[in-house]
Structure formats: structure tokens, C-alpha cells
């Protein structure tokens, strides 16, 4: 197998290079290696290093490689890309778990950063927070540092009592338990379902309780507003009554004033007649 290199980088791998030379009429033709002036790669012609002619073209170097070595290097490159894409989230944990051998095994003491994925006992674990690993901080025993990603059946791993900061459960972590009574045990699925039902019922209860308290508060406020409104109506009614009484008294006073004025005019007229 041959590597075709340009400016230090590999631009092609081929079992049989397309050797070419320039015909006397100016076009390119295929030829044997000993007559070659250049090679064609994906429709582009390059000048071969160490060969004469085609001086105006860019130069490439042809290097013969052992096929096994090239394939191994390519496989390693693919493996690195696979790991990188998994850590970036482009590949799901189940798919990654089918190729766990591509991931570096967990070891100690090693400085790990959040997001790195390591293999242990055929399973993959993702680092949750930066730390330097220790012998007793194994991924399967340290849920605050690592989470399993390769086995979908372990979405609810068996719960264990934390004994320190390294095996404390992270916020949002899932864990299941199995109730053992010496014979007929409740399965993990049943336990999870019961806990979920209890959580749902408790949430509904507290939500309804809160809603009832809010309704009672609003009713009380409404009653107070109605009472204030009724008091205002009552006061308005009393004011209207008082105004009506005052208006009636005013009419009586006006009539009395009219009577007095009329009597005054009549008295003056009588005096003039007597004189």
C-alpha cells in the first residue's frame, strides 16, 4: 500500500498509484512507474518528488507502507473518533457499550475530568466531576463520581448506603431497591412503581391542599369586599334619606318666606289707603 503525501500530510492511500506522464501533444496519459512524471489523485495531477517534468504542478511524495500497519493506524484513528464522539454526546451509551474495548480502562491514580468515559469490567462509566482516582473509588462504588452508561437495564441500579463523599448520590441520580421478606419479595419494578404512585399522590394532595387554601383566601377577601360594599350602600341610603328630609324642610322654609313677604306687601298697601 502507498501513502501519497503533500506538504507533510497524507492526501490518499492506494494499492496501485495512477502513474502519468505528459504526451508530446500536451495531454496526460497513464504509464508505468519507470516512465512516470506524476500521479493522478481524485482527478488532480501532481508532480512526483524526484521525477523530472511537470515542474509547474504541486509536488507529492509516494511512500510504500505495510498494509497491516496502515490498517491498524486507520483503526486506531476510527477508535479515537468513536470515543470522542461518545464523550461529546453524538453516540448513545448503549451503542458505545457494544464497543467498550475502544475505551481506555479505568485506572488510578489518574486525574479525570467531567465527561470522560472509561471502561471497567466490560461496562462504561462517565465521569461526573473532576477528581483524581483512588483505589477504593471504583466507578461502580462511587455514584457521585461516575455513572454507568452502557447498560440500559441499570437505569435504576441497586441502592447502597453511602459511607462518604465519594459514594454519595449526585442530585438527580436514580437508584432502586429490592424488598426481601424471606420468600415472596417485591421486585425492583414494583418498588419503583409504588414509589412513583406515592409521589404522584402526594404531589396531587399537596397541590389540592394549596389550591383549597388559595380558594378559601380569595373567598374571604371577596366576603370582605362585599361587606364593605353593603356598608357603603347602607350609608348612601341614609344620606339620601337625610337629603330628602332637608329638601322638604327647605321647601317649607321657602313657603314660609313667601307667606311673610306677601303679608308684608299687603300691610304696606293698607297703610297707604288709610292715609
Structural description of this entry:
By secondary structure, this protein is α+β, with helices and mostly antiparallel strands. 41% of the residues lie in helices and 18% in strands. Residues 178-186 have low confidence and may be disordered. The longest helix has 87 residues, at 188-274. It has helices spanning 67-88, 93-97, 188-274; strands at 2-6, 9-14, 18-22, 28-30, 38-41, 44-48, 59-64, 111-112, 117-120, 123-127, 131-132, 146-148. The protein has 3 helices and 12 strands. Strand 1 (2-6) and strand 2 form a beta hairpin. Among the domains are: 2-65, no CATH class; 87-155, Carbohydrate-binding module superfamily 5/12 (Seminal Fluid Protein  PDC-109 (Domain B), Ribbon). The strands form 3 sheets. The chain has a 7-stranded mixed sheet, with no helix packed on it. A 3-stranded antiparallel sheet has the order 9-10-12.
Amino acid at each position: 500500500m502507498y501513502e501519497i503525501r503533500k506538504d507533510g500530510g497524507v492526501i490518499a492511500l492506494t494499492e496501485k498509484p495512477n502513474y502519468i506522464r505528459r504526451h508530446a501533444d500536451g495531454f496526460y496519459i497513464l504509464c508505468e512507474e519507470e516512465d512516470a512524471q506524476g500521479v493522478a489523485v481524485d482527478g488532480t495531477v501532481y508532480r512526483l518528488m524526484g521525477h523530472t517534468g511537470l515542474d509547474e504542478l504541486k509536488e507529492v511524495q509516494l511512500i510504500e507502507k505495510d498494509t497491516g500497519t496502515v490498517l491498524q493506524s486507520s483503526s486506531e484513528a476510527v477508535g479515537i473518533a468513536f470515543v470522542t464522539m461518545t464523550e461529546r454526546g453524538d453516540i448513545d451509551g448503549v451503542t458505545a457499550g457494544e464497543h467498550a474495548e475502544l475505551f481506555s480502562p479505568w485506572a488510578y491514580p489518574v486525574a479525570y475530568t467531567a465527561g470522560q468515559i472509561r471502561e471497567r469490567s466490560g461496562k462504561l462509566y462517565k465521569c461526573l466531576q473532576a477528581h483524581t482516582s483512588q483505589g477504593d473509588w471504583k466507578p461502580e462504588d462511587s455514584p457521585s463520581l461516575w455513572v454507568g452508561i452502557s447498560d440500559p437495564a441499570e437505569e435504576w441500579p441497586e441502592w447502597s448506603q453511602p459511607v462518604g463523599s465519594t459514594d454519595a448520590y449526585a442530585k438527580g441520580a436514580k437508584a432502586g431497591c429490592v424488598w426481601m421478606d424471606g420468600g415472596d419479595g417485591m421486585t425492583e419494578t414494583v418498588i419503583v412503581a409504588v414509589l412513583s404512585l406515592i409521589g404522584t399522590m402526594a404531589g396531587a394532595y399537596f397541590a389540592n391542599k394549596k389550591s383549597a387554601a388559595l380558594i378559601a383566601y380569595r373567598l374571604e377577601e371577596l366576603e370582605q369586599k362585599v361587606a364593605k360594599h353593603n356598608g357603603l350602600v347602607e350609608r348612601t341610603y341614609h344620606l339620601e334619606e337625610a337629603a330628602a328630609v332637608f329638601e322638604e324642610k327647605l321647601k317649607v322654609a321657602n313657603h314660609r318666606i313667601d307667606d311673610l313677604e306677601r303679608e308684608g306687601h299687603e300691610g304696606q298697601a293698607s297703610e297707604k289707603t288709610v292715609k
